[in-house]
TrEMBL record:
Keywords: Repressor, Stress response, Transcription, Transcription regulation
PANTHER family, sorted: HEAT-INDUCIBLE TRANSCRIPTION REPRESSOR HRCA (PTHR34824)
Domain of life of the native organism: Bacteria
Organism classification: Bacteria, Pseudomonadati, Pseudomonadota, Alphaproteobacteria, Rhodobacterales
GO molecular function: DNA binding
Family indicated by similarity: Belongs to the HrcA family.
Function: Negative regulator of class I heat shock genes (grpE-dnaK-dnaJ and groELS operons). Prevents heat-shock induction of these operons.
Ranges for domain Heat-inducible transcription repressor HrcA C-terminal: 114-332
GO-annotated biological processes: negative regulation of DNA-templated transcription
Protein name per the record: Heat-inducible transcription repressor HrcA
Record's keyword annotation contains GTP-binding: no
Gene: hrcA
Amino acid sequence: MTNRHLLDELNDRSREVFRRVVEAYLATGEPVGSRTLTRGMAEKISAATIRNVMQDLEFMGLLESPHVSAGRQPTQSGLRLFVDGLMEVDPVAHSDREMIEQTLGAGAPDVGSLLDRVGGALSSMTHGASLVLTPKHEAPIRHIEFVSLAHDRALVVLVFSDGQVENRIFTPPPGQTPSSMREAGNFLNALAEGRTLTELRQHITREIARRRQEIDSLAAELIEQGFAAWDGDDSDARLIVRGQANLLDADAADLDRVRHLFDDLERKRDIAQFLDLTEGGDGVRIFIGSENKLFSLSGSSLVVSPYMNSDRKIIGAVGVIGPTRLNYGRIVPIVDYTAQLVGRILSGPKG
C-alpha cells in the first residue's frame, strides 16, 4: 500500500494521534504514552481511546513499542509516511539564514575553503554531521608528471591552467624506471593539452590501445596505475565531513549504529554514490534508515540536496546525517537554502 493510500485509510482522529506521536518522538527521542497525548488533542478523548487508536496504527506498521510497558514510537515506515504526507516544513529561520549567508560571504573565495565553512555551519546549526561533496576540478590540465618516491610508491602531479596543483600517491607497476616514468609523462602531456581531467580520462584508454606499439608496456601500465588514483567519474571530488562528534549524543543503545556510521565516514567510501543520491533533479531528498544505501548499517537519516552550476548541471551536494529522529521540518529548508546559495555563488554573477 502506498503512503497516499495509507493516509487515506486514516480518519481525522487517527491522523492526529499519529502526527502527535511522531512530533513528540522527534522532539524528545522517547516513546510517547497515551496519557501524554490526551493533554493536547483537538477533541477530548480518553487515554483508553487513544490506546486503541495507537494499537490500530501499530497493526498498520506505522508505530511500534520498544518494550511492553513503554509508549509508542514511529517505525521507519511511519517516519516515511509522516515526512511525505504530514510534515510541516518551516521557513528558514532568520538566524539560520543569516549564519549561512555570513559563512558563504566570509573569507577568500577559494572553493575548498568556502565549502569547508559550509560544512562547519551546517553541522553547527543542525547538531548533526554534515557532508559536502565539492565539485570536480574542471580547469584544463597544463602539465602532468610522475615522481618516484620508493620502489612501491610513486606520485602523480597534475598542474591545472588556473594554477591549482593536485597530487596523488599510488603503487606503480613492479620494475618501473626513471625512463618509463618520463615516457609516461610525455605521453600524457601530449594528450592533455587543453583538456580537463574528465576529458583526458575518457581519451586515455582508447589512445593507449591505439598507440601501444609506440610506448613501452611498462609506461602504459604506469599511466593506467597513475590515473587509477583519479578513477571513477566523481572520485576526484572531495567529501568534506564535519560534526561527527554531534552523533555521540546518541543513546547507549545506538552506539553500535554510530560506530558503523563513523567507520563509513572515516573511510569516505563510495563517494560517487553520495552524488547519486541526488538523482532526479534539484531539491531535497530524505533517506530514512535502511533507505540510505550509503549508511544503511547505521540506521541513520540523511537529508541531501544537490547544487548546480549556471548550466543547471549537478556539480556537488550538501547534506546532513544524524539519527532518524532528526528535526526534518527545520533541517530540510536549511539544506535546501544552503545548496541553492552555494550553487549561485559557484556559478558567479550572471552576465
